[in-house]
Amino acid sequence: MSESRSGNGTRILVTGAGGFIGHHLTAYLAGRGCWVRGVDIKPPEYEPTAAHEFEFLDLRRRADCLQATRNVDQVYNLAANMGGIGFIEANKAVVMHDNTLINMNMLEAVRLNGIKKYLYSSSACVYPGYLQKSAEVSPLRESDAYPADPEDGYGWEKLFTERQCRHYHEDYGLSTYVVRFHNIFGPLGTYDGGREKSPAAICRKVAQASNDGEIEIWGDGKQTRSYCYVSDCVDGIVRLMDSDYHQPLNLGQDRLVTIDDLVDVVSAIAGKRLRKRYDLTKPQGVRGRNADLTLMKKTLGWEPRVSLEEGLVKTYRWIARQLEQNGRLKQ
Ligand code: NAD
Predict the structure, then answer these.
(1) How much is the average pLDDT of 249-276?
(2) Ligand 1 within 6 A of CB of 18
(3) Active-site choice (120, 154, 168, 229)
(4) Would residue 299 count as lying in a domain?
(5) Count of domains observed in the chain
(6) Does the C-beta of 21 come closer than 6 Å to ligand 1?
(7) Same domain, 148 and 191
(8) Which residue CA neighbors atom 44 of ligand 1 most closely?
(9) Which of 91, 181, 231 to mutate for ligand 1's pocket (most ligand atoms within 8 Å of CB)?
(10) Is 154 in the active site?
(11) How do 228-229 and 117-123 pair as beta strands?
(12) pLDDT tens digit string along 142-161?
């Protein structure tokens, strides 16, 4: 049974509302009749927010977290200093520094302001490297997170904060929720500048290549992942917040594909035949990663509905349109 469902009139704070998932979530909650305050250090880049109120605050600061969390019933904390593998590999110190401050100050502000429900966005990067050494990897279950050996920097901070959410639940009775995202993608996400992730980067590269041209791929293309479309992600986290389940839960897709497969799907959408050039000097992350969704399906009756192909059609078209509008497509 759910503790209390959000809906008409529920007052909600979404942090990271200027970012990819936070922006989509804000629109979804506002559409459901909730009152939403968005908070970020920057506005959404590609379209106006649907939030009823949007405040520019730096959540590394305790006072800003206290201000952000005033007079709300629920908090979705999606703010983080993050990016794709290239960014988190090259910025471990600042990523751990900023995200530890954001997450410790947010939890404490939520407690001090007497908020009932708090959702923390964790990541598949908490899973141990020793389980992800093969491309034919077994899907990762929530219990696989220990013994701990997470992604260096970013993943260690996520695991540490998951633990602190558990302690706030146990020690203070705060209703904390922890979701482990596995590669969320879709329109309105960063597609260039260094923080973009593989689906967006590949869509951009395919869009910019000539019809029979070449595409650069990080690694040998045989590394595997699973990808979840953003509308499924948003639906899943709202269901989680409406539940009384307080252990970490995977949210993603369980269809394993290689990076080569991903490039082939996007190239077919674009109607291009591209030669692949592999750059083995670039970071690739773990060799293989897939999500076991058994617990999420059983606990929340949730499962992803949008296929990789459907999601990539929407994402590719949006990125190609952005590039075209900015005069960055080959004529
Ligand atoms: P994003 O980078 O698009 O959004 C994060 C937002 O946080 C940005 O708009 C950023 O400006 C904001 N932010 C950073 N520092 C801040 C600060 N000091 N104060 C206020 N706001 C600040 O990322 P996203 O893809 O929307 O991810 C949302 C959450 O989900 C993050 O916690 C991320 O670690 C987690 N996550 C995402 C994925 C994914 O595939 N997108 C996978 C695993 C985990």
Answers:
(1) 98
(2) yes
(3) 154
(4) no
(5) 2
(6) yes
(7) no
(8) 123
(9) 181
(10) yes
(11) unpaired
(12) 999 999 999 999 999 999 99
